[in-house]
Amino acid sequence: MDTTLRRRPEKQIPPYGRNDKRDSYRRKEQQHFWAAGSATIGAAVWAGTAVAARTGITRMGAVELIFLFAPLVVVPLGMALGRAISGPGWYDSAASRLQPLGAALAVMAMWHPPGRNAAVAALGWMLVCGLLAGGGLVELIRAPWSDADRSVRAALGVAKIDLAVGGAWLVASRLGMRPMGIQEPIGLLTAVHFHFAGFATATIAAATLLSAEKRGPQLWLKRIVALIVGLPYVVAAGFLISPAMKMGAALMFSVSVAVLALVLRDFGKRAQDPTARVLLQGASAAVFAGMVLSGTYAIAELLGSDVLTILQMAGTHGILNAVGFCMPGLLGWLVENSSQSPASNRQ
User: Fold this and answer.
1) CB atoms near residue 60 (< 10 Å)
2) Within 10 Å of residue 238's Cβ, how many Cβ atoms?
3) Are the C-beta atoms of 243 and 225 separated by less than 8 Å?
4) Structurally, how many domains does the chain consist of?
């Protein structure tokens, strides 16, 4: 009897953490697959909407189309990258499930003329933004007690809160409100500002800082990331307080993002995945053209020159920032993150 029992194969229990890391890697792959699918469908919807606007089926200008690129393409990529960096939370999971519906309602908000119907539809997207902002607040509260990535977590927290600010401005714009006397298209451009210059750029900066800190402490880069995270609020406040303040903050933000682009280019050259190398270096190149335009616009506006109008900026700087920098920057880090094997994650 004892002999029989001794010969029975025993169940091998792996050391603690080994299966956990495999499961974590598997969940990460599923999240990336979801992000890619959601962003691909969103890009198709955005392209169809752009064609409809171009052919006169619907009345949408460049600013409206640039904004829609955020809920349809950029935000799902940024959400997936944020989860890959800091892990999933309740708020983020709920926002992830509601994101497709919220993005569809954002499109409906743009199809309707400003008024109650458009504002009600915009509230659907604001709900997604509010959930993400709740997750961002949790990130900020936990950041001081986290490990070496506390600056990364803080940047991600503020990035998610940016979406709530942008979502609120979207609702105000679609309702036809003029908060503090701000006229359109400035209201909608503020929503664009906090989705792209806020959420997307801060998320890319956080991912870049996380990779840089694997080499060791990066105090100077932390300061650059802090400027990138905080200056969008100073730029927005400049619209109300002082043109000089707005110009100074815009120029400082442009310089900070240009420095980030140089770091991004360096990481792009050394990325493990060839697709990530192309995406990250392409995003870096697009930044410089976009930041030159934004700096030129800030100076021209202070001097009272109309060498660049708001609509011209939307059609040039806006496209470069959204399609040339934010999308490939987020996607590049996602691809590079997914190329890491479970074995490399254990190191």
Assistant:
1) 18
2) 18
3) no
4) 1
